[in-house]
């Protein structure tokens, strides 16, 4: 299985000259088509650990369109692990073929267990964990979204020495693992701006548990109503960004982050001369699933 780390270059995104802002996009999406961006970073040390401990099976959790589920399935099949996905929503059980993410995961050998939303919420309870052990035997658990200490260790490797020239590092935030890794490898004077892709009152707290400095801030104005919620304005932005820069963005995370960065630049949030590095954390496999929903609602879709 090949991961193309040399593909993760910093690509300049052109802005109106009068803004006197430099924006670069780190193309982590190009590391691998399915174990892309931060999911590669988050899985790396977990998979090394799973192998070291002699596990043959990975078990993890996710929703219907989860980039993490797709990444674990793909990495598992490429590296010789069996994979089990605990999926939120019993109603999906008969509809695997209609869901591009689940279909892909299944083709990569993932075994599913579909659970109700209530059971899913209690996924870390002892009762549920014991049930899983009884059903599946020994497995290495990767938490929902893949965030744990080893994931954060992997995300510390996103920034390179030359990235010390940037004043701001921007990333999309889901569970907070990626931003924690970025925060923990900053140079003095640098700041991380996190753009949450969902409404979550505990994110600030969750990240504080891992962060070793205060050089970060969450910009909470660009979640578009919640996780995987989008509107025509966001779709239009993603399509325009792709047409201008030849870079695809995903609708759940990186599209919202870049929409936010462009809006902040427009509003002169950044001082003149600022150098910004935004992290393209990948997630492009989610476009097909989102387009399915958009088509059902007769809304404009994301260009491929
Ligand atoms: C999972 C994901 C994120 C969120 O990462 P966290 O570490 O959970 O905050 C951001 N961007 C993309 C594209 C993702 O797939």
Tally of structural domains? 2
According to CATH, what is the topology of the largest domain?
A: Rossmann fold
What share of the residues lie within helices? 25-40%
Biggest pleated-sheet summary: 6 strands, mixed
* Strand order in space, largest sheet: 1-2-10-7-8-9
Shape: globular
How confident overall, as mean pLDDT?
96
What ranges have pLDDT less than 50 throughout 5 or more consecutive residues? none
Offer a concise description of the structure.
The chain is an alpha/beta fold. It has 2 domains: 10-33 and 152-296, Rossmann fold (3-Layer(aba) Sandwich); 39-146, 3-Layer(aba) Sandwich (Rossmann fold).
Describe the structure.
- By secondary structure, this protein is an alpha/beta fold.
- It folds into 2 domains: 10-33 and 152-296, Rossmann fold (3-Layer(aba) Sandwich); 39-146, Rossmann fold, CATH 3.40.50.1100.
- 37% of the residues lie in helices and 16% in strands.
- The chain contains 11 helices and 10 strands.
- It has helices spanning 38-52, 67-79, 100-107, 117-121, 126-136, 149-155, 177-183, 203-210, 232-245, 254-266, 286-296, and strands spanning 10-13, 22-26, 57-62, 82-88, 111-115, 140-142, 168-173, 191-196, 216-218, 275-279.
- The strands form 2 sheets. The chain has a 6-stranded mixed beta sheet with strand order 1-2-10-7-8-9. Strands 5-4-3-6 form a 4-stranded parallel beta sheet.
- β3 (57-62), α2 and β4 form a beta-alpha-beta unit.
- α2 (67-79) packs parallel to α3 and α6 (149-155) crosses α7.
- The longest helix is centred in the first third of the chain and has 15 residues, at 38-52.
- The radius of gyration is 19 Å and the shape is globular.
- The two termini are 25 Å apart.
- The structure holds pyridoxal-5'-phosphate.
């Amino acid at each position: 299985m090949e991961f193309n780390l040399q593909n993760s270059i910093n690509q300049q995104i052109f802005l109106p000259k009068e803004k006197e802002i430099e924006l670069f996009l780190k193309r982590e999406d190009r590391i691998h088509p399915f174990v892309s961006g931060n999911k590669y970073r988050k899985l790396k040390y977990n998979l090394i650990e799973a192998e070291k401990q002699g596990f043959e099976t990975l078990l993890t959790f996710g929703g219907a369109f989860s980039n993490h589920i797709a990444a674990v399935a793909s990495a598992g099949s490429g590296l010789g692990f069996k994979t089990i996905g605990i999926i939120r929503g019993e109603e999906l059980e008969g509809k695997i073929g209609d869901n591009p993410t689940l279909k892909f995961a299944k083709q990569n050998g993932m075994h599913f267990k579909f659970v109700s939303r209530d059971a899913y919420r209690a996924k870390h309870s002892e009762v549920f964990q014991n049930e899983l052990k009884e059903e599946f035997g020994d497995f290495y658990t990767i938490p929902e979204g893949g965030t744990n200490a080893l994931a954060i260790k992997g995300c510390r490797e996103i920034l390179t020495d030359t990235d010390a020239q940037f004043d701001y590092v921007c990333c999309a935030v889901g569970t907070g693992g990626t931003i924690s890794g970025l925060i923990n490898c900053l140079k003095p004077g640098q700041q991380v701006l996190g753009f949450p892709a969902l409404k979550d009152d505990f994110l600030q707290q969750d990240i504080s548990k891992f962060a070793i400095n205060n050089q970060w801030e969450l910009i909470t104005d660009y979640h578009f109503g919640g996780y995987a919620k989008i509107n025509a304005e966001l779709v239009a932005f993603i399509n325009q960004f792709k047409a201008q820069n030849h870079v695809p963005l995903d609708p759940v995370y990186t599209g919202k982050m870049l929409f936010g960065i462009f809006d902040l630049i427009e509003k002169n949030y950044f001082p003149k001369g600022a150098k910004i590095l935004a992290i393209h954390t990948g997630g492009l496999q989610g476009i097909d699933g989102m387009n399915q929903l958009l088509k059902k609602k007769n809304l404009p879709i994301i260009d491929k």
